Amino acid sequence: MKCALLAGASLAAFAGTIADAAAQTAADGGQSTGGSATLDQVASGQVDPQDVVVTGVRESIRSAQALKRNADQIIDSVNAQDIGKLPDANTTEALQRITGVQIQRRYGEGATDFDHRTQPAITVRGLTQVQNFLDGRAIYSASGGRAFDLEGVPPELLAGIDVYKNAPANIIEGGVGGAVNLRTRKPFDTPGQVISVTARGNYYDRVDKFGFSTSGLYSNRYDTGIGEIGILVNAVYSKSQYRQDGLLAGPFGPLPTGTSIAGAPANAQIPYGFEIYDDTGDRKRFGIAAAVQWQASDKLLVTAQYQGTKYWFNRTGAYYYDYNNRNVTSPAAGAAFTFNKEGYATSGTLSQQTFETGRFDQELWSASQNATLNFAYQVTDKLKMSVDVQYLDSYYNADRNGHVLSLYTRSGQDATTTPHATNVVFDLRGKYPRWDVANPSLLNTASNYTTPYIADSLQRNDARTLALAYDAEYEVEGGFLQKLRGGLRFADNTIDLRGTWNGVCLSQLGPDPSCSAPSGTALIPLSRNPQLSMPGPSANWFDGNTVKNGLLYPAFPAGDGVWAQTKALYALFGARTKDNFTPGDLNSQTEKTYTGWAVADYAFELGSVRFDGGVGVRVVKTQATSRGTQFNANGSTTPIAVQRLYVRPAQREYPRAPDRPAADALRLFEGAGPPELRSAVDQPDAQQPQPDQPDHRAAERQLGQPAVAADQVG
After folding, report:
1. Which residues form the signal peptide (predicted)?
2. Does residue 107 lie within any of the structural domains?
3. How many domains does the chain have?
4. Cβ atoms 429, 346 nearer than 8 A
5. Domain range holding 443?
6. Consecutive 10-residue runs of the chain (714 residues): their mean pLDDT?
7. Same domain for 476 and 525?
8. Whole-model pTM?
């Protein structure tokens, strides 16, 4: 019996693997082999059955280097030991270990931008169009577009990750920036029985909560009357917490005409205002992978695989932001300012500042199921063929809401006409930026606030793929030409996108989805529903020197989940949520691709130097159809379907040479993606609000890039 032991965690963990293999007896009659053993030696049974084999990072690095060395294209790999050696929260974070891969961090982890959906979770050498594979097969999520939400995949489910930076002709099209292949385990990867159990715990200090991850794997091989059969089952469940504190200064603008500041540079830039936010939430992940392999004969191997993942993300987003309804900065007269060398103010005082505060919560749950069947047949000693069938099914659902409190008392006010304005003193120097108001009671007194705006949003997406592939490979004996490879592939992809955004302005006139109340209309005081506020910011927010006397965030009525809380909020004001999808909320896209590819691998020696590589071509015929709704000038709507059909060849040569961009790669689904369903907190203002009605949709307004943005995550 062989034993491999692994332990590692941020707080406490245990893991163990027991391999019960048909090991050879050592040549000395069963004595211990001594020294160190590689994974290849373990797999081939070259160690004594009583040996304890401990494998670590060195061996996984050796395996990853072998993959790169033997590959006929530019590839980087990370194997399971590398993925697990630190407590990676998800597969996105595991990818940051690979040279040339950059990840985006969102809400405490490497993840897709859930709100804007404008940036993918990863880029390869700065390029965003990255194709995603699971065991070499194309996958995508129902979130919209072509990307797969990698953050939903637990890293414990994987045997390794490969990143192709210059994809050859045999790689499925669509990845201009590169391709990421997630490899899962199969029973024939190991020589016999494998049992593995892991557990890991984490403590998140800023939110003062614990998280955990646990996984189990069983794999075995059996000799039967119909050939050798292997089975594998791997399951993972994890939960993580996060809290993200943010302080934003800006955007910045020039001094108002006729205003001067002592010592200010000619290009002085003053912040329009300041914002803070508290973001808290949790994530849960469940993943399962199962595989059955059947060596029916020396020539035929049948492999059936299933991978399923479920992902839950719950978020509470609380924002407190300046909302002055003015187009000019407002430095306080006579106040002292300091500036950095670029001309941006680093300390000073702003006058006539007023605020709004928003809560934007969301519950997101998604799942993907991928089932495959592969037949690999060794026709002759030189010729082998394979047939592959894949079916992918996924969904992506989200409930979102919005709730705003304001220091305005009537519609059409700005910071110069509201009774609730104050000076703001700020200092962006030192370890932590900070700002505070001259009138502390203004921000923490409920009677100063009104309830001007509420919002709701639903998202329900589904996606399906059926793919068939046939590949052949022929070994050529000797000479310049080494191998001929080719294949055919058909894929039928469908995605149905459904999403709403419903905003309602509130005033004494009642709920108004058109937000058309005349200027001067009285808003609804918070004192009418005092339960709709909560104190903020969170405990230990930054260094405690910003808004030291506290402020108020919006709160939702009690309810089982985001949607129930949203409906309870609407009921207080006699408003109605949008519970059904209308034609304008729907979009359906279908893409069928017919692909043929061929590669010729070559090798030769020039002096003492060996050169090898390949020349290939991939031809893709794409038929894409998009169905939606056309909005006519007279206010009517018409169903519409748009079709595109095109054929494009891509010739590729990939000698083993220094890395270079895959300039000839194809991008499909051009322009495909979800309709714009950005929530209020997600939309920067495209223009200034009209003077007769404040625009409550923008809790994170970006008139320009903020000069200072600070975050603390835990």
Report:
1. 1-15
2. yes
3. 3
4. yes
5. 201-581
6. 32 38 36 43 51 50 58 73 59 82 81 63 80 90 83 84 83 82 92 90 91 93 95 95 92 93 94 94 95 96 96 94 94 95 96 96 95 97 97 96 97 95 95 93 96 96 97 90 95 95 96 95 97 93 90 96 96 96 93 95 89 90 92 89 82 43 27 29 32 38 41 60
7. yes
8. 0.80
